[in-house]
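Entry 14. Structure prediction run on the chain below.
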Amino acid sequence: MQRWQLLDELWRIQDAHGFLPDGEIHALASKLDISLVELEGVISFYHFFQRKPTGKFTVYLNKSIIAEMNGREAVKEAFEKSTECKWGGVEETCTFGLFDTSCIGLSDQEPAALINFHPFTRLTPEKVNRIVKQLRWGTPIEEIADKVESKVHFHQAKDRTILLRDFEPGSLVKKLSEMTSDEVLEILGKSQLSGRGGADFPVSTKWKTCRSFETGPKYVVCNADEGEPGTFKDRFLLMEYPELVVEGMILAGFVIRAKEGVLYLRAEYKYLKKTLEGVLEDYRAKGWLGNSIAGIKDFNFDIRIQLGGGAYICGEETALLESMEGKRGESRVKIFFPAEIGFQGKPTIINNVETLATAARIIELGATYFNRLGTAKSKGTRLLSISGDCARQGIYEVEWGVSIGQILGLCGAKDTFFMQASGPAGMLLSPTQWERSLCAEDVPCNGSFMVFNKSRCLISTLLNFSEFFKHESCGVCTPCRAGNFILSRKIGKFQNSLGVPSDMRDMANWGAIMKMTCRCGLGRTAPNSLVDAIQLFPGVFDSHMCKDISPLEKGFDLEKAVEAYERATNYERS
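Output returned:
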């Protein structure tokens, strides 16, 4: 057994026992020839690996801000009452265990939970009582789990749509038999396709760099670890267009002549694994995966699925590589990019689900078709996951350049107080900014679009965001580990009307420190929403100040603190 197989082995053991027993862990450490301390370090890093029994039915209830807005607290109380179990533990008979978890990619169907990794959506206290009774009666969980909806509310006209259109499985694979890797790269280069995961790096450049290494193994990795709260577009693509994603991976494998592809699937999407395995098996049966794909000489490429363990940080590409190698998902120092030194030290392409699906569409439709859509720097379209205070939550495919106000109109948002683009790590926007455009030149967006109306508390929302980052920080670098803790405590003071003016200065200063010194994107972007809120809604913070403020707290220069943050932002971008 090799180290990179560790996560799979941990899942095998846990699926068999419901947790990871001491005997199995001792044997596994011996088999891998690593210390128990090192193995325990890996296990404890991931949210869903458990060293103690968590109940015959393990409930993970989403605690994202969208879940809270939709009645999570009442659902939590109903679970406790109906199971007679205290939250965060297991009841006496070890039948039920109740636990919190971060966003599970079901923001359009909240409150939502995973019970033994089966999805249960749009929960109410009444529905919870019914579910618990059925499980007690012995009803198979597969029979009562919900079918996850994939609701599309808007896409461009047919001649302006990229992703949400019919796709014939195998059509791209067959097309590759008539192309060279140079031709593929030329089309992708002309399209100016950039990564859809947030980094916005040119796809053709990444693939060309990886291809330039002529000898030795190479890998293609599909990053399906979309953990940003409010994001569920990749889940939609994996459910409704899995073949398109697979053929995007095959396309990348063709360009760099890789033999192995890995679809890194977040643990929260474990319920999709069986279906995706079926798609891969079908492709193998048709000769579209395996040896000499579609009759192309020496093009031997296959794909396996790697299930994660529950860690937001693994959405960062180098942390994902560490996880794939059976280690803690801690980001690497980027001396080299994965396209140069990636999985097992070999050249590796890592793109997210939407990027690979879009690359496949570009080869199908052509660069000219793609380039006539969007803006000068943002070509094509963008899939949005829209949730929150709007009439129509779900999937939208919009053309880059659309205004924030237009999107709010499409989703039926009313009395919007603020909205969050790209999840907690993105940009917080106020009504004065509805004319701004969704594009790289103005408001970049990784796909999450959360709407908050005037009934929502901005401070409570920021505290939810900060608690998320505090929990999900890998802890390797001090600015992130300490910074997120301090920001959370500072926001908590305002939540309890105990804030003082210097707290605002301190939060902006800590944001600048994190922006300049954190090791990876999680820490560098964690303060974004908070600093945006300080600038856009100073009155909200004023209303949560302590009534008895010391004279020493008055007269400090907040503008200088914010300027420091903006300098750090410009430094980070450069």
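The CA atoms of residues 417 and 453 lie 5 Å apart.
Filed with the rest of this week's runs.
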